[in-house]
Design brief:
The chain is of the alpha+beta class. It folds into 4 domains: 42 residues; 118 residues, Glutaredoxin, CATH 3.40.30; 207 residues, Rossmann fold (3-Layer(aba) Sandwich), CATH 3.40.50; 35 residues. The protein is built from 13 helices and 23 strands. The longest helix is centred in the first third of the chain and has 61 residues. The termini are far apart.
């Protein structure tokens, strides 16, 4: 009995001892496991950190563009800027002096597109006495110098920012300024646009921003009074004519006809002749292309094709397949204010050896009014149907086997002006800024001057104003207010039905 008790005690001790050994063994295993896991974690963290540092160094050295998820790609180069940068086949140097990171990043984007475009960053211009002596820079200079060969252009903060007094926003124009500077220093000869003066309804101030846009895209703009120079200059790339308040003289007409016979190119922006004033001399010019501009205005009945329930502010459909627009690869809309229509004489076109491309048309519900005393905004018995009226056209006239003259005509002038149109009690927009008005006008000039690489949709770097048609506004309001209310009501009904079933 005593022996059995001793055996039992020994067994208990052995079990306790074994248990302790097992716990110690298990503890050592757990410690090794924890150490192993900790080591792997530390190693993994070290690998991740190393990879991240390596990727950052690689990306920095590669000078890749940042990812840009904004709708208008305002932090990326536009297609036009890329095309212009890619076409540079001579060395261009962009020197940034005391510039912030935003401008430096944009300059580097041009280098990433074309290595011919070099970028130099200078924080202390006193170390570059050559620049200080040649350009008069000081330690406080805040400029971008763009150079190519003997040509150069200096950009200051005035060029890099502008202020829109209609929206009260500062707008960054760095890309526009850099792209235009590159064009300036790499273009041997700028296209010259002559703006016909002397009989116009509107002064040049009315087109200030449009003319400024042309200058920014490296066009030279000159006024032309044919009564003083007697002929259209030989270096004229495009003759621009805006709405006339009175007829041109016979001498001016003859000068323009001679220009056409030499293969001259014309762009005409003309509001309807609401006064009905006879202009036989100017009509002789239009007869050379088989067209005339209406006296009456085209109004709209389709609420989805007018702005602010105003039948005179019509949204016109721009053809995406024309010579002027096909390079944009997207649909465009323009907003014409009190537009006329273009009457095309097809029989005359055949006689003139001319062909027409339709650039812009009204909707199928538009109508034509000649009696401006009618106050009704709806179509009356005195009005005529004018569905799908032509309001923009390109006429190409063959003079001889080697010579062709072209005319681009829009039966509206207001759409390219800085006429302010109220969009709320506090804000207004320039007519030029509505929809693709600027693109349509600028691309038309680019086509006539054979600068297809300039035909594009121009990027808007500011916040877009809320400009929609009545129908679009109803849809947006329905999405914002009506649909959520319907969902809430539907949920309450289902909840009541389930509650009653219980």
């Amino acid at each position: 009995m005593k022996k059995n008790k001793e055996n039992i005690i020994d067994n208990d001790k052995n079990q306790e001892k074994n248990l302790v050994v097992k716990k110690e063994k298990k503890s050592r295993i757990e410690i090794r496991k924890i150490f192993k896991q900790t080591s792997l974690t530390i190693l993994l963290i070290a690998i991740i950190i190393t990879v991240c540092i390596g990727i950052n160094i690689f990306v920095e050295d590669a000078n890749w563009s940042d990812l840009d998820f904004t709708q208008d790609k305002i932090y990326s180069l536009s297609d036009m800027s890329k095309q212009i940068a890619e076409a540079v086949n001579e060395e261009v140097k962009i020197t940034l002096i005391n510039m912030p990171e935003a401008q430096i990043d944009f300059a580097k984007k041009y280098n990433s597109v074309n290595k011919n475009i070099k970028v130099e960053i200078i924080d202390d211009v006193t170390s570059r006495t050559d620049l200080m002596d040649e350009y008069g820079f000081t330690a406080n200079s805040y400029v971008i110098l763009v150079e190519s060969g003997e040509r150069n252009k200096i950009l200051t903060d005035v060029d890099l920012y502008t202020y829109d007094y209609t929206t009260y926003k500062q707008i960054d124009t760095t890309e526009e300024a850099l792209t235009n500077a590159i064009i300036d220093v790499t273009t041997d000869k700028k296209p010259i646009i002559y703006n016909l003066t002397g009989h116009n309804k509107y002064s040049s101030d009315y087109f200030y921003y449009f003319l400024l846009d042309l200058q920014d895209e490296a066009y030279e703009i000159n006024d032309l009074d044919l009564l003083t120079v007697e002929k259209v200059p030989d270096d004229c790339s495009v003759l621009m004519i805006t709405t006339l308040a009175e007829d041109i003289t016979k001498a001016e007409k003859d000068s323009i006809l001679k220009y056409i016979e030499k293969g001259g190119k014309i762009i005409l922006f003309s509001d309807p002749n609401a006064t009905g004033k006879e202009m036989p001399n100017f009509q002789k010019v239009l007869d050379e292309y088989g067209i005339s501009i209406s006296k009456g205005a085209v109004l709209e009945q389709d609420s989805s094709r007018m702005l602010y329930s105003s039948p005179s502010a019509i949204l016109v459909t721009v053809s995406p397949y024309s010579s002027v627009t096909k390079e944009t690869s997207m649909n465009m809309n323009a907003c014409f204010m009190t537009s006329g229509k273009i009457d095309v004489d097809n029989d005359k076109l055949e006689e003139l050896h001319a062909e027409v491309e339709i650039l812009a048309t009204t909707s199928s519900d538009s109508f034509y009014r000649t009696d401006y005393s009618i106050s009704s905004t709806s179509k009356t018995d005195k009005d005529e149907d004018a569905g799908n009226s032509t309001v923009g056209a390109l006429i190409r006239k063959t003079i001889d086997e080697e010579t062709t003259s072209e005319l681009i005509v829009y039966a509206n002038n207001v759409f390219i002006t800085n006429f302010q149109i109220p969009i709320s009690q506090q804000q207004a927009m320039y007519a030029l800024d509505f929809y693709n008005n600027e693109d349509l006008a600028m691309n038309s000039i680019a086509y006539l001057t054979e600068r297809e690489n300039m035909i594009t949709i121009r990027k808007d770097t500011e916040t877009s104003a809320y400009t929609v048609t009545e129908q679009q506004n109803l849809i947006i309001l329905s999405i914002i207010f009506v649909i959520p209310v319907v969902i809430i009501i539907f949920g309450i009904v289902i909840w009541q039905i389930r509650r009653r079933k219980k």
